[in-house]
Amino acid sequence: MNAKIQITNLYKSFGQQVIFSGLNLTVYKGEILCIIGKSGSGKSVLLKHCIGILKPDNGSITVDGQPLTYTDADAAIVKKFGVLFQGGALFDSMNVYDNIAFPLRRQGASEEVIAVKVPELLSHVGLTGIETKMPSELSGGIQKRVALARAIAKNPEIMLYDEPTTGVDPITAGSVDRLIVYMRNTFGMTSVVVTHDMRSAFRIADRIAMLYNGTILFEGTPQQLKECQDLVVQQFVAGRASA
Ligand SMILES: Nc1ncnc2c1ncn2[C@@H]1O[C@H](COP(=O)(O)OP(=O)(O)OP(=O)(O)O)[C@@H](O)[C@H]1O
Ligand SMILES: [Mg+2]
Predict the structure, then answer these.
(1) Which tens digits make up the pLDDT trace of 199-234?
(2) Burial letters 173-199, b for 16+ CB under 10 A, else e
(3) From CA 61, how far away is CA 65, in angstroms rounded?
(4) Which residue among 10, 43, 49, 210 is best mutated to probe the pocket of ligand 1, counting the most ligand atoms within 8 A of its Cβ?
(5) CB of 32 within 8 A of CB of 193?
(6) pLDDT digit string (tens) for 62-117?
(7) pLDDT by residue (tens digit) across 114-156?
(8) Which residues contact 109 (CB under 8 A, 6 or more apart)?
(9) Ligand 1 pocket check: which of 44, 86, 163, 166 to mutate, most ligand atoms within 8 Å of Cβ?
(10) Mean pLDDT within 36-48
(11) Three-state DSSP class for residue 99
């Protein structure tokens, strides 16, 4: 399989706090990789490293074989990514239409194309007719779906999802899961999904990686995770599955 993102020997500390101490992880082209790990273990920080928002103290990250350099030269790499940040913030001052149109306008799409794409993207996330609503008029779950529509608007090669099902009801969570799988199946999108929701991870993941103490403690298929004998892994999975 082809590596899409290759993280090699990653070190990162914030002051005295060590977040990564020699972390290695490969994300393969077209796969859905779920990242699990307890709160504060560095899952969001890891995603931010993948798109060059945070710079490693040591180690390297390559995308399609191209290393991030933390200069303007990274723009071509960063363009390949769509990101749904934890919290999925929308632009408060823009209505739903303009929020979703934003990345398309930045790409130089015409207003005619945008007028077709916005309702299409909304329908992908199970929404219709809310184009003129402001974010403050929407529930958290709906805001998250709009943020998702915005994140996939550019049809990115790689999608990073940070807790896409947190704070949404189980039915919406199920539709978000299906959307992640649909995007991958339809567009061959490589997907990295940070989640605390084990049930969702087992449903959608091709592989699961568990972050623990600054490195990847486990990496493998959902079946391999179920069979993993490591006590820390077992306890985490059992704890989350019953949570
Ligand atoms: N920019 C930053 N400066 C200093 N410390 C940071 C920064 N970003 C994150 N941290 C710290 O790094 C640690 C890991 O944070 P991170 O947000 O990656 O955790 P997480 O695994 O995503 O947790 P959660 O499941 O709660 O979202 C936390 O202790 C956090 O406070
Ligand atoms: Mg996080």
Answers:
(1) 899 999 999 999 999 999 999 999 999 999 999 999
(2) bebbbebbeebbeeeebbbbbbbbbbb
(3) 9
(4) 43
(5) yes
(6) 999 999 999 988 989 998 999 988 776 788 899 999 999 998 998 899 999 999 99
(7) 999 999 999 988 899 999 999 999 988 788 889 989 998 988 9
(8) 117
(9) 44
(10) 95
(11) helix
145 close to ligand 1 (CB < 6 Angstrom): no
Q: Residues 24-37: pLDDT tens digits?
A: 999 999 999 999 99
Q: What is the β-pairing status of strands 81-84 and 158-162?
A: parallel
Any ligand 1 atom below 6 A from CB of 32: no
For 37-58, b/e burial (b = at least 16 CB within 10 A) is: beeebbbbbbbbbbbbebebee
CA dihedral 5, 36, 51, 111 (to 10 degrees): 100
Q: How many CA atoms lie within 13 A of 80 on its CB side?
A: 20
Whole-number Å distance, alpha carbon 42 to ligand 2 midpoint, is 7
Tell me if 217 sits within 8 A of 232, measured CB to CB: yes
Q: Which amino acid is at 107?
A: Q
Task: Please work out whether the CB of residue 45 comes within 6 Å of at least one atom of ligand 1.
Answer: yes
Residue recorded with tokens 């931010």: 48
- Is 41 close to ligand 1, i.e. is its CB under 6 Å away? yes
| Mutation to probe ligand 1, out of 12, 35, 45, 210 (largest number of atoms < 8 A from CB) | 45
